[in-house]
Design a protein that fits this description.
The complex is a heterodimer.
Chain A lengths: L1 H20 L1 H4 L1 H16 L6 H19 L7 H5 L2 H7 L4 H30 L4 H29 L8 H25 L5 H30 L1
Helix pairs in contact in A: 1-7, 3-4, 3-7, 4-7, 4-8, 4-9, 7-8, 7-10, 8-9, 8-10, 9-10
Chain B lengths: L1 H8 L1 H33 L13 H28 L2 H33 L7 H22 L3 H15 L2 H11 L12 H5 L5 H33 L4 H6 L3
Helix pairs in contact in B: 2-9, 3-4, 3-6, 3-9, 4-5, 4-6, 4-9, 5-6, 5-7
């Protein structure tokens, strides 16, 4: 048991170390997120009150796209340098190593997005209570995003002609998270109860965290066979 | 029973079995669909509220039922393919996807045509409609993923994983009408209450049942044919295929 956890920790730490050596690359999703969210107000008339109504959708959809930005390369280098083959041969459940890697990716990609989301939301005229719910909904929703993205990346890792396939695979699967995530923020805006959508998001997160690593490991094994 | 099942799973005997079954299924499907279409268009009375517009039901309901059924069938085949590594089940997943996508597109299209005269809009962003659209994109994902790989087996197994994960959408589509306040009505015929206390008149119901059975048979006929193609293409090196198809 101890050896298994040590292996998972090693994968987690390696991900972080690799990312910290190239900080500029790690900042890309964050910058992308800010630019994307900035484009929506530019498309509307200045001082348009519709912006407030659209704010939950803008913050959520932009986070979705920003998190997906680099996910295609997730397993690519591990396949190229043979790391993944060693994972599959190792005496440790591959699903656990996958979960460790995805958890590190969440920390690297999604956590910074959650930190800047309140700033963007305030810039889009969301009030303080809605912003708090937004952060909560992103905390629950982004793990679903990263884990689903990881699954799609594993599905296409052996495909030379993947192209735009990953977003096509991930975005339909992300619809429920988007509905309940943005729905919770809208409910907060309207002064309604937010527990319902948040519980749904939490349930989705638990399912994604527990089931998707196994599917991802299976897809990786299939791609390398 | 089990030995028969195992023998059926081997490609050559499945091919022969499907060759026997498919023409009969297709003939039955065409017969049912022909009678159902005629009865739906001419024999069933016009609805007292919707007039003749309600006749879209005879295409819309079978297509929508099949769009969900085919995806569930794909998920079951996917589970069989991944657990028992059965080659035929892998073929079943990829062979079913384009048919399911067509039925989903048909359900959306007929739904739009039906929505215009009755709701006054082709499209509303409503739970049932949106989740059905998501289902179409899931089908497209499976089709796209299948074509992204050059190796047929790897592609089919990747599709199986995707189909298995995507199946979470099926209950969402099915129950969306009850969970959210939807403009789309609930199911009128396919529920236990409806059998005890029918909500649709018998004169309207029997053509619909014919169309439903006809569409399901049609799906199975086309699916068997596509499966045969899949099997032939994969086993093209095998002796039984070369004897069957003189090059």
């Amino acid at each position: 048991m101890k050896a298994i956890l040590r292996a998972a920790w090693a994968v987690f730490a390696r991900e972080l170390r690799l990312a910290l050596r190239r900080p500029a690359e790690g900042a890309q999703p964050l910058v992308f997120y800010c630019v994307l969210a900035l484009l929506f107000p530019l498309g509307l008339a200045a001082q348009d009150s519709a912006l407030r109504a659209f704010a939950p959708a803008i913050v959520w959809v932009s986070a979705l796209l920003a998190a997906l930005l680099g996910i295609e390369r997730l397993f690519r280098s591990d396949v190229d340098d043979g790391t993944l083959e060693l994972w599959l041969l190792a005496d440790v459940p591959t699903a656990l190593l996958v979960a460790a890697k995805l958890a590190a990716q969440w920390l690297l990609i999604a956590a910074p997005l959650i930190v800047v989301a309140p700033i963007i939301a305030l810039a889009l005229n969301l009030e303080a209570h809605a912003v708090r719910i937004l952060v909560l909904s992103l905390l629950l929703g982004t793990p679903v995003l990263i884990f689903t993205g990881g699954f799609a990346a594993a599905l296409t890792v052996g495909a030379p002609r993947a192209g735009l396939l990953i977003p096509i695979l991930v975005l339909p699967l992300m619809c429920p998270a988007l509905i309940f995530g943005a729905g919770a923020v809208r409910a907060a805006q309207a002064g309604l109860a937010v527990e319902g959508p948040l519980y749904f998001l939490a349930a989705m997160m638990v399912m994604a965290l527990t089931l998707l690593p196994w599917a991802t490991a299976g897809a990786l094994r299939n791609a390398l066979e | 029973m089990w030995t028969w099942f195992h023998r059926l799973a081997s490609p050559p005997s499945f091919y022969r079995f499907a060759d026997l079954l498919a023409p009969w299924l297709l003939a039955l499907a065409l017969l049912l669909l022909a009678i159902g279409t005629y009865a739906g268009l001419f024999l069933a009375p016009a609805d007292y509220q919707q007039g003749d517009a309600f006749r879209v039901i005879y295409v819309h309901v079978p297509a929508a039922a099949l769009s969900l059924f085919v995806y569930s069938l794909m998920a079951v085949s996917a589970a069989i393919a991944l657990i028992w590594r059965m080659k035929l089940a892998e073929c079943a997943v990829v062979a079913a996807a384009p048919i399911g996508a067509s039925f989903t597109a048909l359900a959306l299209l007929t739904g739009m045509l039906w929505g215009k005269p009755t709701w006054g809009a082709y499209w509303v962003w409503d739970a049932r409609l949106t989740s059905e659209l998501v289902l179409l994109f899931l089908y497209m994902g499976v089709i796209g993923l299948n074509q992204a790989y050059s190796d047929a087996r790897t592609a089919a197994r990747a599709c199986a994983w995707l189909a298995l994960v995507g199946v979470v959408n099926v209950p969402i589509v099915h129950y969306s009408v009850q969970w959210w306040n939807s403009l789309h009505q609930g199911s009128t015929i396919l529920s236990l209450d409806a059998i005890r206390d029918p909500k649709i008149s018998g004169a309207m119901l029997w053509p619909l049942l014919l169309m439903l059975f006809g569409s399901f048979t049609f799906f199975f006929a086309v699916w068997l044919r596509r499966l045969q193609n899949e099997v032939l293409a994969r086993e093209r090196g095998a002796r039984w295929v070369q004897e069957l198809v003189p090059s």
